[in-house]
Amino acid sequence: MLFVAVLPLACADQSNQTATESSTSEGSTAGPCSSPERPPVEGELVTVIPDSGNLLCGGSMAHMDWFVARLMERFQVDPSAVDPSICFVWKDSVEEVAELCDKTELLRGCAMGQTTISAFAPLDHELVHNVSNWVGYPPAFFREGIAVAHQGYDGLLNKEHLPNPQDPLDFMEMSVSELGAVSNGDGYEVAGRFTGYLMSVHGMDAYLRLYASLASNADLSQIDEAFREALGVTLEESVADYLNTWTDCWSDPLISECNAPEIAWDGAALEYEGVVDCDNDDAIGPYEYEAIATRAVVQRTITITEDSLYELRLAGDTQESSSQPDVSPLGSFPVHGVSLYGCGPCGEGYMETVEGGTPRLKRLKPGKYSLRLHGLRFEPGPVAFSLKRVP
C-alpha cells in the first residue's frame, strides 16, 4: 500500500504554534522521481530533484540524510528490510505541488509513499511521514501526531507553545481534512502533544506497537482495545492522565537541533559570533516558500549548568532586556537573530532575540539547549550575541 500525506498552504501564527494542515490518502510515487526534468542532487538517503533556480544551502543535504537516518533508528525501521531511499521533489510553486499531489487546494508539500513533493526545502514534517509509512498506517490523528511531534523547527524562529487543554478524544476520529480545518492548527497541535505524551510516558517500543497495530479506519472502541494491548491502559485512562499532566507540555526530541555541535562556555558569560551563510556546509535552508523571503539557519547546542535568570542579547543592542517575547518580529519572515530551546522531554526555557526586537530575559533550568543562529539566504553575515547568567 502506498500512502499520501498532504500539507496544505498555511503558515505559523505569531505564537508559532503549528498551523499547517495535512491530509492522507492513497497515491502513487510514479512521475517526478522516475523521470526528473532537472539533474538530481543525491545524498545517501534523500535525493532532491529541484526546479531550475532552486538551490539548497550547503548543509541541507547532510541535514536531510542525517534526519532520515535518525528517524529510522527511532522508529525501529531496519534499512536492510526496506528501500531506504526518499525522493524529494522541490517545485517552484504551491500550484505545481497541488497538481502533483492530485489536490484541488493549494499545498506547500505532500508525502506520497517514499516521495515528498514540496514548495520549499527542507520539509522535515513530510520526511517524518516518509519514514513512518514503514511503521504503519493508523488513523489520521496518529499519522499527523507522529509527524508534528518530530518535525522540529522547520526553519522557524519561535518554538514556544502555549498550554492547550483541549481533549484529544474530540479529534481522534477526524479525517486529515477535518484536523486541518480546526482553527489555529489546534487539531495538529493536540495530535502532536498527545503523541509526545505517549512516547514520553510509555516509551518508544510500546508506542510503536500501538502505532503499528492501529488500522487507518479504527474507531474509538478499536483504539481503546489497541491501547489496552500495547500500553496496558485504557484510552480513557490515558487521555485523563494526559489532561491532568501534559496539556502545558510540548515534547519534540528535536532530533537534528539537539544533536548539533556544542558551544563551550563557563556557564556564566558567553560572547559568541557565528556566520549564517547559505553557501557554508553548516547552513540549513533556504526554506524557500513562495513570496516569503528565503532564510537560513545554523544549529548549535549549549549546556546550562545552573538554575537562574539568563539574558540573551545581540551584540551592540543597548536596550533593556525584557521577559516578554517580541510579537511583531516573531510574526514576520525571515529573521536575523538567535534562539534557545530546551532539549528535555518536555521542552521549556524558550527564549529569542532578533534584530529590531529586544534583548531577552528568561529563567532557564539546567540541561542541554538547542541554540540556533538565524539569517537571510541572500544576505550572508555574522550573528553575534551574548548570553549571561543574571545574579
Outline the structure in words.
- The protein has 391 residues and is α+β, with helices and mostly antiparallel strands.
- It is 26% helix and 24% strand.
- It is globular and about 60 Å long.
- The protein starts with a strand and ends with a strand.
- Residues 1-30 have low confidence and may be disordered.
List keywords for this structure.
single chain; alpha+beta; disordered N terminus; 5-stranded antiparallel β-sheet; 7-stranded mixed β-sheet; 391 residues
Summarize the structure.
The protein is 26% helix and 24% strand.
Give the arrangement of secondary structure elements.
Elements: E1 4-8, E2 23-25, E3 41-42, E4 46-50, H1 60-74, E5 86-90, H2 94-100, E6 107-112, E7 115-118, H3 124-132, H4 140-148, H5 176-181, H6 186-213, H7 220-231, H8 235-245, E8 269-276, E9 283-284, E10 295-304, E11 308-314, H9 327-330, E12 337-342, E13 351-354, E14 360-364, E15 367-376, E16 381-390
Parallel strand pairs: 4-5, 5-7
Antiparallel strand pairs: 1-2, 1-6, 3-4, 6-7, 8-16, 9-10, 10-15, 11-14, 11-16, 12-13, 12-15
